[in-house]
Amino acid sequence: MKCTVTSSQGVRCKNEAHSQKNGLCLAHRSRIARWGHVGADTPLREYVRVAPVSAPKYLKGETDEEKFFNTVVWSGQHQVWHGGICKATGLGQLSYNGYNQTAGRVSWLIHCGPLPRGVRVIPTCGERLCVRLSHLQAVYANGEPYVDLSPAELDELAGV
């Protein structure tokens, strides 16, 4: 059964009615709840996805470290993450050791070992997807550095 709402120009709603008793589609029922009327002359918007959704990226490799480094590409001075990206932060994201973590944090964990709770790894070079160790900094929530090493010392630690 179609929705029973008709505009003043005689155009009828094309949606299916949600229930038999009132004959309204979900859109017009929600308008009654919000506005107190169906808003017959206010057109219904078509549903359009805001952002394109791509297929999930499955990383190639046997170990977590192989999966990580197979998804990193050298670009000038940067090691750019080409895997999944968190929409909220724009940082690279992957599952590592059973947890979703940022790509920068995983790079730090691989090169330097575990970090205590509350320590974040942030890029310092301006490229949000860069995972080069010398372009990352581990900091506490208040911004104080966790480890105070120079970029040259970090490159030496990473073997670059």
Q: Topology, please?
A:
Blueprint (H helix, E strand, L loop, with lengths): L25 H10 L28 H6 L2 E4 L2 E4 L11 E4 L2 E4 H10 L7 E4 L12 E4 L11 H8 L2
Summarize this entry quickly:
This protein has 160 residues and is of the alpha+beta class. It has helices spanning 26-35, 64-69, 103-112, 151-158; strands at 72-75, 78-81, 93-96, 99-102, 120-123, 136-139.
Short descriptors:
two-stranded antiparallel ribbon, HNH endonuclease, elongated, 160 residues, alpha+beta
Order of strands in the sheet with most strands: 1-2
Question: Proportion of β residues?
Answer: 15-25%
Assign the structural class, choosing from mainly alpha, mainly beta, alpha/beta, alpha+beta, or little secondary structure: alpha+beta
Number of separate helices: 4
What is the rounded Rg?
A: 26 Å
- The string of secondary-structure elements, in order, is HHEEEEHEEH
How would you describe what is shown here?
The chain has 160 residues and is an alpha+beta fold. It has four helices and six strands; from the N terminus they run ααββββαββα. A two-stranded antiparallel sheet has the order 1-2. A two-stranded antiparallel sheet has the order 3-4. Strands 5-6 form a two-stranded antiparallel ribbon. The chain is elongated, with a radius of gyration of 26 Å. The chain starts with 25 loop residues before the first helix and ends with a helix.
